[in-house]
Amino acid sequence: MDPALRDTTSTWWSRATRWTQLTFTEDDPQNLDLDFWTDVMRRSRSNALCISAGGYMAFYPTSIPYHYRSAQLGDTDPFGAFVDISRSLDMAVMARVDPHAIHADALAAHPEWAALDEHGEPVEHWAFPGIYVTCPFGPYNREFTTEVAREIVRDYDVDAIFANRWQGHGISYSEAAERAFFDDTGLALPRGARDPDDPAWRAYPGWRRQQLSELVGIWDRAVKDLKPHVAFIPNLGSVAVQDLERGLVEEHYPMLFIDRQGRHGDEAPWSAGRNGKRSRSVFRDRPVGLITSVGPENPTHRWKDSVISGAEMQTWIVDGFAQGALPWFTKFKGEIHDTRWVQPVVDAFTLHDRVEPVLSRAKITADVAVLDPTRHVAARAGQPVESLYADNDAHGHGVYQVLVEAGIPFEFVNDGRILDEDLDRFKVLVVGNAELLDDEDCARIDAWVRRGGSLVTTFETSLADGRGRRRTDFGLADVMGVHLTSPARGPVKNNYVALTGPEHPLHAPFRGAQRIVGGTGIVGVRAEDGVDGVAVPFRFVPDYPDLPMEEVYARETPRDPAVVTREVPGGGRTVYVAFNLGALFWETLQPDHRDLLARAVTWALGGDGVARISGPGLVDIAVHENRNGDVVVETSVALVNLTNPFTMRGVMRETLAVGPHSVSIAVPEGREVQAVSLLVSGTAVAATVDEGRLDILLPSISLLEVVHVTWAPRTRTGASR
Predict the structure, then answer these.
(1) Residue 269 domain-assigned (yes or no)
(2) Among 78, 177, 288, 639, who pairs with 137 as Cys (CB 3.0-4.6 Å)?
(3) Which domain range does residue 75 map to?
């Protein structure tokens, strides 16, 4: 398309909803099959392209000194060719640059571009000897990369620049970094092992955040000076967006990207959807794309020219967009050795194209939120947030798995952003275990519960402040009606909790049982029995041995509180579980633990909430609502089938169709059903309305189904259809 005919003042990112990314290798310019890639982009209905341009290596005829050209470039311009192809398909175009390394000739001419180690030596690349890592805080990024970006924007019809690996790799002790750190903090850069008591180590994360934020502003303003509609969007991981200043992101990032390209190890298949929730919990008003690699993408095992199973690739993409993360596939190397990835990408992208018209006009909603403890996990691990994906948060994994199994839709609240406006979106907050909570956060949660919110939490939550200093009691003690008597102990073996006290709704899943499995980490607590609605429906059976077998029996009656509930004046409810419930469920997958937590959430919610599903298999659920002001016009329930022979090992060989499934949706106040349809299968569906809920029976779910309901003003009562 002629650039003069395009509306370059429009928000191109709002139309960029299905992304193709191709990352060139040095030998690609002489081996590209442009017809193949044109066909892939057309068949997949891609409407946006991210394509390699320059930085470490240029794939266009650059005129910038020491901007290394591909040795195979010759008189070709593969970057320009793809820009032309994508424009002919009316696609948005983003040019990829990678500023993380330089060649030896650039180092010799510009030693100030390199990152230095603690001894002042240039840092050689860890994977490819003979090239060198750049310093993110010096003139390479601020001057050279800026010049590269401006050349691309000036000479090509692009909408954005996308930067990979721009944040540095460890601390750079370059002269520029040392000087900037001292000027801003009065300290030398930290050295040696990370020490939270060292003032330099404490100052470094904030200083780094400020430096990187300034850099984004420099880059974005530099390209906008040439073409105002163009954005410079450095890549950020699923939690690393927290490591830039919020105002900076709001100004310069029209959309975000989750560079979590596939399964790590045996992580659960719902991890793709979790990435979407995680990003949304930090920036709810920014579209986000989930980058999916067609090859295996694991921190310790990388086969860049291979292909993962089609079922796994499709599930990653589909669960991502069902939970609000737009589909983006990435292929390393333009030359094709294996085409088995093409059809799975086409099928997954076609599914998105089919449901996008409905889902794009809606927002994901839920009554339940889970506290995402990324800063807590980072602090406990002694790592910066951007280096983590909270993969070691077993408590959070267990909570996530329980809610998916229970068919309860939920969102995230980020522990770096616990604000009234975020809490008030939800009826229930579930905290798997967040030991570190600031006094201000505890006060906000306390006030939210007292005005009607409900809280479900476990183990050591709120026993330390935001800096890790231990409290003598829970920060949330008053609202929960629970007080600390002794710190966590464990590992405890053969622990049980007994059903005690008057009949309680939390007892319901355990009819016929006097006790259920307990924990391996146990916190000693005292409950304010009988005060302000406090109850103790479960108590610990005092410890007894697990061997010899003849000695395995209880000597004492149940005593210490294991689960404490409270009905708070004002309508809120709380549940506190005094053991490591989420982490232990993730480790052992015991149904008692699942049922206890699921029942606690349902009781705290006071019912089934906006939607809930039940049926066989593992199905992820997301509720999308389209509102006209405060009036719900449409409700769409996206159901992603995660069931496969290796369900809890992440790897997928095939998806096993499951069903039937019951879907229950709350009828919005003042509304009645106008129409019910299935967006994927297009088949008829049985639906009835009873006691304010729409009940739908789905015979089967293959990979994805979306139940779409349109609502009309209520004209009569007692309607059923």
Answers:
(1) no
(2) 177
(3) 1-232
The string of DSSP letters for 27-54 reads TGGGT--HHHHHHHHHHTT--EEEEEEE
Residues in contact with 534: Cβ distance below 8 Å, sequence separation at least 6, in sequence order? 481, 527, 528, 564, 565, 566
Write down the pLDDT at residue 541: 96
541 secondary structure, DSSP code? P
Least Cα distance to 638 among 611, 617, 656 occurs for: 611
Q: What are phi and psi of 50, to 5 degrees?
A: -115, 120
User: What strand order describes the sheet that includes 534-540?
Assistant: 410-414, 368-372, 428-431, 454-458, 573-577, 561-567, 534-540, 496-499, 515-517
User: Same structural domain for residues 582 and 617?
Assistant: no
CATH number (domain holding residue 519)? 3.40.50.880
Among 187, 211, 232, the domain boundary falls at 232
Order of strands across the sheet that contains 661-666: 611-614, 661-666, 693-698, 686-690
Q: Same domain for 93 and 13? A: yes
Q: CA-to-CA distance for 588 and 570, rounded, in angstroms?
A: 37
Same domain flag for 635 and 707:
yes
Q: Evaluate the omega torsion of the peptide bond into residue 548 and state whether it is cis, within 30 degrees of 0.
A: yes
**Which amino acid is present at 162?**
F
Q: Tell me, what's the pLDDT at 160?
A: 97
d(CA 249, CA 235): 12
d(CA 37, CA 85): 9
The string over 236-266, giving b where at least 16 C-beta atoms fall within 10 Å of a residue's C-beta and e elsewhere, is bbbbbbbbbeeebbeebbbbbbbbbbbbbee
Cα distance between residue 647 and residue 668, in whole Å: 35
pLDDT at 252: 84
Q: Retrieve residue 111's tokens.
A: 């030693």
Using CA atoms, how far residue 116 sits from 55, 138, 171, 173, 252, in Å, is 20, 11, 8, 5, 30
- Quick one: pLDDT at residue 377? 54
3-state secondary structure 328-347: EEEEECCCCCCCCCHHHHHH
Identify whether the C-beta of residue 479 lies closer than 8 Å to the C-beta of residue 455: yes
Q: Is the pTM of this model over 0.90?
A: yes
Kindly report the CATH number assigned to the domain that includes residue 681: 2.60.40.1180
Residue ranges in the chain whose pLDDT is less than 70:
1-10, 237-243, 299, 375-392, 530, 716-721
Q: In whole angstroms, give the CA distance from residue 148 to residue 96.
A: 11
Name residue 342's amino acid.
V
56 and 190 within one domain: yes
Distance between CA atoms of 545 and 553, rounded to whole angstroms?
Answer: 8
